Amino acid sequence: AALEASIRYLADNLGKEGLRVNALSSGPIKTLSAKGIKDFNSVLTVVEQKAPLHRNVTTTQVGNVATFLLSDMSDCITGQTIYADSGYSIMGV
Asked: What is the pTM of this model?
């Protein structure tokens, strides 16, 4: 909640200078460093079972969302947290 509030405040303050501020929140991603997290595979399994798209996200997919946010295609978006998590965040679990 603190991060989302900070994003909104920054967007409000920097908008008058033409700057956009957004956050990108991804689902768990299978990476080399994630292997160090105990029971990480069970986290991936839960997301795959419960997310509306029934899959985990990849670094490429999250990168695609970041590229969109950095592009002119998103020039009217600011102060938002964009979830790239196969819909898991809407499930309330």
From this structure: 0.88
